[in-house]
Amino acid sequence: MPLRHSRSPLSSERRADPGAARTAAVALLAKRDFAAGELLAKLTARGFGHETARAVIGELTAAGTLNEARYAENYVAWHAARGQGPLRLSADLRRHGVAEALIEAALAGGPDWTVLAGRVRRSKFGSQAPASWREKARQVRFLQYRGFSSDHIRAATGADPDWTEGP
After folding, report:
1. What pTM value is reported for the model?
2. Exposure winner among 72, 116, 135, 156, fewest CB in 10 A?
3. pLDDT tens-digit profile of 12-30?
4. How many folded domains does the chain comprise?
5. Tens of pLDDT along 78-117?
6. Contact predicate 86/110, CB 8 Å
7. Are 153 and 87 in contact (CB under 8 A)?
8. Distance CA 108, CA 113 (A)
9. Same structural domain for residues 51 and 87?
10. Quick one: residue 47, left, alpha or beta (phi over 0 = left, psi -120 to 50 = alpha)?
11. Whose CA is closest to 36, among 97, 118, 113?
């Protein structure tokens, strides 16, 4: 049976200790990048005061240790490589508290979303174009779930409003 580390509540001195909060923040950032809002939530969940955590985040941002633009770019690159589209990534980044301008810049610097949608469709369904409206609708739903826009989906599935089913 695995042992769990118990986190006892921090004393009032430790709650307001910027050194301890900075150490905890750097330890978290050593594992992966975080958005400022995520890091704030993690630090307050560990028992640090809201103002102490905000001050530490401000220091780390000023020092360049915490960089939301870098976070957004890395997030887009990682999740796009896993086949997720720009609408889903945009919503995720907003939920993490990243500024809209940074989200737009990261998505603009991402892959060609139309090409990615086609690649994701082919990896899931094969290279054959969908043979029926039912199959096309299934592929469209899959790409919508992945976060691609209707233009990307139309290009990936070859949707044509005048398309008719085969003989």
Report:
1. 0.80
2. 135
3. 666 778 899 999 999 999 9
4. 3
5. 999 999 999 999 999 999 999 999 999 999 999 999 999 9
6. yes
7. no
8. 10
9. no
10. left
11. 97
